Structure formats: C-alpha cells, structure tokens
Amino acid sequence: MLVDSHCHLNFPEFKQDLNQVINHAHNQGISYMLTVNTRLSESLEIQRIADTYPNIFCSVGVHPHDSKDYNDPTLIEQLKSQANHPKVVALGETGLDYYYNNSDQIAQIECFNMHLNTGIELDLPVIIHTRDADADTLSCLDAYPDVKGVFHCFSGSPDFAKQGLDRGLYISFSGIITFKKAEELREAVKFVPLDRILVETDSPFLAPLPHRGKRNEPAFTYFVAKQVAELKGISIEEVAEVTTKNFFTLFSKAVL
Ligand SMILES: [Zn+2]
Ligand SMILES: [Zn+2]
Questions:
Q1: How far is it, in rounded angstroms, from Cα 233 to Cα 71?
Q2: Which candidate, 71, 82, 203, 210, has a CA 20 to 30 Å from the CA of 221?
Q3: From the CA of 46, which ligand is nearest?
Q4: What distance in angstroms lies between residue 174's CA and the mean position of ligand 1's atoms?
Q5: What is the Å distance from ligand 2's center to 203 Cα?
Q6: Is residue 230 assigned to a domain?
Q7: What is the pTM of this model?
Q8: How far does the centroid of ligand 1 lie from the alpha carbon of residue 153, in Å?
Q9: In terms of DSSP H, where are the helices of the chain?
Q10: What is the pLDDT of residues 135-167, one digit of tens each?
C-alpha cells in the first residue's frame, strides 16, 4: 500500500477520466491520495472529489503563484472555514517560488505567513512549495517554530533538506528523483532518514521515468517509491510501509 501525498485531481488534465485514473491507482497499490488545493476558487470542487472517494483526502490553500490574488487578511478566515471540512487534512500548498515569481515576493511571503500562522492555530500541517527561495523559506519558518509540515516535491540540496529536517519537517520526493540529471537530488534521498520521507506524484506534472513527458497520474507513485527503495537499498514494500505510516503521522486528521 502506497499513498500519493500530493496530486491535483481537479486539474483539467483529469476532467475526462478521473474515475479511471483513480481505479488505475488502486490497481497499482496506491491506496490513498491527497489532492492539493492551489486556488480558493477551486476548494469546493476539490472537497467534492474528496467526498466522492473515501480514500482521497484534500487540503485548502493558495499556491505562491496565485498569492497576489488572495493576499488580504480575510484569507485567514477563509482557510479556517474551509478547514472545517472533515476531509481537509492540511493547509496549502503555500510557500515561495522565486523561480517563476508569478506573484511578487512580498505578496508570497505574506501569504505564506498567513498559512503558517493558521496551521499552528488549527493544528494542521502545512504543505510547502519552495523553489529558489531557500533563505526566505527558512526565515519564515523560523518565525513559527511549532509549525508541522512537509517540503513537497523536494528539489533542493542535501543541506536544504537538513534545514527542513532540523525544523521538524517531512521531505516529500516526486518523480524528479528518477530523472537522469538529478544526481544531487538522489544524494538528498540517501541523506533523509526513512522515517521523514513521503512520496508523491504532483500529478498531472512531472511524470517519472519511464513515463517522462506524458501526463502524470497517482498510479506512478510506484516508480517514485521504487527509486527510493533502490537508493536506500531496501525493498519497495518497506518503503511503502514506512511512507504510509509517515503520511498518517503527519496528516493526523486523515483517519482511515
Ligand atoms: Zn508545488
Ligand atoms: Zn502541487
């Protein structure tokens, strides 16, 4: 049994065949999925998906790309009211993306801080997206030392992974770890202790080898777990067992 800890099942790529995609995941041993919110305008749609499928959980939050559209103090109240839904088990994805800078950096930081603050208040973990923003990500986190969360789709250095671990975070690896040029990232996989690792697809993006370039889907969590197993020198069953346990420890509101 594996869990896809981060996918986007409401995205247009899945409009035609979501049922089949979810059945395919089940047949490949992906027993649970967390479908992640990026815009509040889509949060009810995501909750509907989570309500339809007993084994799908969801989050509520605003992606750093979209933070400029939601950056006012009422965001906190909106997060809180949406988080009342029983299938909402986390806040996010939030964070900082200075690679694309689709929102200006001040707006990103303010939005990220509102998620961190609300995560502590509601005792919910925060799903963190961070790209080319290591120092600012860490300084935001340091203002909220009690926050629980995960660096999702981790693509940083082993040292940045250590900074996250030191702050109590989990590290979630995606299909990027299968890409040929991701040598440094594979070092990070070796470095992160097994009891702090999650696996994800970030579907529909970033399909792992051997499906690179195609639409990604939760079934492909298998290839991420297989790569983790190879790097750790253990069986895929062991990776499945530990990462599933980690998922339900971090996202403790997700009850079976
Ligand atoms: Zn992301
Ligand atoms: Zn995502």
A1: 45
A2: 82
A3: 2
A4: 10
A5: 8
A6: no
A7: 0.97
A8: 6
A9: 18-27, 43-52, 74-82, 105-122, 134-142, 158-166, 183-191, 221-232, 236-250
A10: 999 999 999 999 999 999 999 999 999 999 999
